[in-house]
Amino acid sequence: MSFKYIEVTDNFKKDIALVRLNRPKDLNALSLEMMMEIRDAMLKLDSNPEVKVIILTGNEKAFAAGADIKQMSGRNSIDMLKVDQFTIWDQIRQTKKPLIAAVSGFALGGGCELAMLCDMIVASESAKFGQPEIKIGVMPGAGGTQRLTRAVGKARAMEMVLTGKFISAEEAFNYGLVNKVVPVELYLTETVRLAEEVAKHAPVSVQLAKEAVNQAFNTFLDQGLLLERKNFYALFSTEDQKEGMQAFIEKRKPDFKGK
Known about the structure:
Layout: E1 6-13, E2 16-21, H1 32-46, E3 53-57, E4 62-64, H2 69-72, H3 77-83, H4 86-93, E5 99-103, E6 106-108, H5 110-117, E7 120-124, E8 128-130, H6 144-152, H7 154-163, E9 166-168, H8 169-175, E10 180-182, H9 187-199, H10 203-218, H11 221-234, H12 239-250
Parallel strand pairs: 2-3, 3-5, 4-6, 5-7, 6-8, 7-10
Antiparallel strand pairs: 1-2, 8-9
């Protein structure tokens, strides 16, 4: 299986596979095509008996700086509903094997949501996390309002979602969003070390333990995700969404009208 937007190494280390986002010129912006490739890679690795743990990473500058805004800017609510991009995210969420994000640089918008979709996060000291969708007239739509709130609490999640502010790796660690913070040159090495700690245990018990932990987390998540997606799609019928995304593409400040 060949990929255009990601690189997959089944045997990166013994028992460990590596999936690297590979759109460096676009700061690994998460296009629909890239997300489909990530899903396909996860399905492939989940069925590979030689793989016990999967690492998802980008590069030192960016894990993923957000969704591909150019791809979405001209769509309306019905277009977004028909594309149904979040079904792909749901399929990635069903990955049975432990999935660890190795994050350096920007993890913003969809990039932050993709990191939170993973089971654990190792961050470099340069990592920046945020949900800045509010700045372009929309809101998080791939789990940001739900997973971020569960990770950092309502007050901090509200501040991040309603202002679009970024937080540093150290803040993310203090808030409980990431497992550890390490120097930039060691972020992948330390992620591999964590993966090796997991991989040495019985694979079936690891998978069932992951399922059990997620059940505690996901009990009310599905309802929250449905509301989040409904509201996200609705925003694509507003003039402010069109203005916000166009301003982002044109690198200017948006002029929101509240309609």
